[in-house]
Design a protein that fits this description.
Length: 233
């Protein structure tokens, strides 16, 4: 390679096959990482919007039975909070069908159903987060491996030279350093996105746990006043 030709494309093309393989891997990981970032960004935005819409309907004064009927009808398009609510109401009604009238048993059954639904919903919301965390932590080391290998390859090529100058060393070193640059290029967006999404997911989880407690309090009041049916709140 011409020592004056130091463009990125030339550096990549003249790198050893191991370094090129590392670069290709990091480029693929970077593309997958950005795809996961945009998917998660839109998914969290949709979760927040659906939760806010349901919570607005929930506190509008609509009866619990009407809300449950609507949630059952729109199960596929419902948000996490609405599905958590539907799980609690479904378990409550199943216990009532079994002629269970003890308020403590009814409330405990609804709470357990909502907690189980909450865990399922959070598993979905947290999907792809571990991938971003892995990209953020591993990519720099993969890039560093490519750099070390490239430097070793470059120096073995200089072994037979009688005179080594900066002009002869620089291209080989630069080729190797491109791998580290690609590793950072993949890792930095993943780190930023991981921290941002982790914070947003924690807020979603706290919001949904608060709703479970509020809905449980409403059920408790209704069961105390009307053991037969939680029709209002």
């Amino acid at each position: 390679m011409n020592s004056q030709d130091m463009s990125i494309v030339s550096l990549v093309l003249h790198a050893s096959w191991v370094v090129q393989l590392v670069m290709l891997l990091l480029l693929g990981v970077s593309v997958a990482s950005w795809a996961a970032i945009f998917r998660k960004l839109f998914a969290l935005k949709r979760v927040k919007a659906l939760n806010e819409d349901f919570e607005r309907d929930f506190w509008s004064g609509t009866s619990l039975n009407d809300l449950y009927a609507s949630a059952a009808q729109n199960a596929k398009s419902a948000g996490p909070m609405e599905r958590i609510f539907a799980s609690g109401m479904r378990e409550h009604q199943k216990l009532r069908e079994r002629r269970i009238t003890d308020p403590g048993t009814l409330l405990d059954g609804a709470r357990r159903a909502m907690r189980a639904s909450f865990q399922r919903e959070m598993d979905v919301v947290e999907s792809s987060l571990s991938f971003l965390g892995s990209v953020a932590s591993v990519s720099p080391y993969v890039g560093l491996f490519g750099t070390v290998w490239g430097i070793m390859h470059a120096f073995t090529g200089f072994a037979g030279m009688e005179q080594v100058t900066l002009a002869t060393v620089a291209p080989g070193i630069a080729e190797a350093l491109v791998a580290t640059a690609l590793g950072l290029f993949a890792a930095i967006p993943a780190v930023i996105a991981y921290n941002r999404f982790a914070r947003d997911i924690d807020r979603v989880a706290t919001h949904q746990e608060t709703f479970i407690e509020e809905f449980s309090n409403i059920l408790q009041r209704n069961l105390g006043a009307h053991p037969g049916s939680p029709s209002g709140h």
